[in-house]
Amino acid sequence: MNVLSTQTPTHEWQAMRFIRLLYVRLAREFALNAPPCDELDSGIDVPSQEDMAAGRQWFVQMDELIQVHQLRQFLQTTTGVNEETLIAMVQHHIGKPVHNEADRDKVDFLLVQFLTQTSPAKIEENAVTIEFVAAGLELALGKIDATASDWTSALEELANEAQSCHTLNTLFSSGVLEKGRKIKIDTGENYFVPSALIAFTRFNFLLRRVFFRLMHGDINAILDGLRALESNGVETLDATVAQFSAQEPIVQLRMICQSWKIMFQAEYSSGQPMRILADLRAIVETALGQAVPAEVAEKAAPKARAAAASASAGISDAPEFAVSDDNYPNPTES
């Protein structure tokens, strides 16, 4: 049974009060001009119809204010975002009477974040079946018949194509991201049907793991390449294609890559930073071919080759994305 179909007004009111605390913190973090809501602040347990209407209107305003990237950044970099919080957020967005593109993107993120936090870190890709995802999301969506949907086959092909890529550049060039998003958009309101949510969450979960392995390999390749260039007297690179300067110091690029290792473990995103990383790898490899003897260049990236081999086998020594709940107060206690 879908848990949303059994939600009473009292349960909805309790959920709104719970999520409000998180939204207020998020608004403070990003300096958003959050409107007041005396009804939700009143502390009443049994709301009137007018109270419910005021609370719902407040969330309409807040959901328009809060952008997808802000929600993603806040939940991935704020330690201790627990399953209860994610479940409440998922049910809030899915339970809306009318959905927009931002709702889809937020649900996309929230469901895969929930599945990631509750799944074994070392799970193999072939174990991430429709049945596994349905069971993993049961607390958020209720018990769902784990049968293949109309979207399962197309998404399965895209997931397999993504897993065959060995660098971020090949992934971006494959068109997997654009094709996956088109399927989601074409699904329309049916995206919020439980069977579709299961299929899309599985695809996003697998794609997230691919991103992590590929960027891990790209960063290692860049760092090994920079060391090889330095050993041959190269001090700067023309990195304008990757949005750096025409004479970017290699020392600075190394520091940036080290900071990326930390940032990318904390925040998953397939946006501009990933493309900069892919472009920088291409710049370094081009410079290696121009400035370094062939036998030195051949030995320049042992870590990257090992990472690529592990990626193709579905294995990674790097830690999977996780958000710890240590030292983080429950939102109901804030």
Report on the architecture of this protein:
- With 334 residues, this protein is an all-alpha fold.
- Among the domains are: 1-99, no CATH class; 211-312, no CATH class.
- It is built from 16 helices and 2 strands.
- The chain has a two-stranded antiparallel sheet.
- It is globular, with a radius of gyration of 22 Å.
Helix content: 55-70%
Strand content: under 5%
Rg for CA atoms: 22 Å
Mean pLDDT: 81
Please give the order of strands in the largest beta sheet: 1-2
Elements, N to C (H/E): HHHHHHHHHHHHEEHHHH
How would a textbook summarize the main sheet? Answer: 2 strands, antiparallel
Count of helices? 16
Distance between the termini: 32 Å
Shape: globular
Decide which structural class fits the backbone: mainly alpha
Low-pLDDT segments: 307-334
Q: Report the count of strand segments.
A: 2
Quick structural gist:
This protein is mostly helical and 334 residues long. Among the domains are: 1-99, no CATH class; 211-312, no CATH class. 64% of the residues lie in helices and 1% in strands.
Fill in the keyword field for this structure:
single chain, 334 residues, disordered C terminus, two-stranded antiparallel sheet, globular, mainly alpha, 1% strand, 2 strands, 16 helices, 64% helix
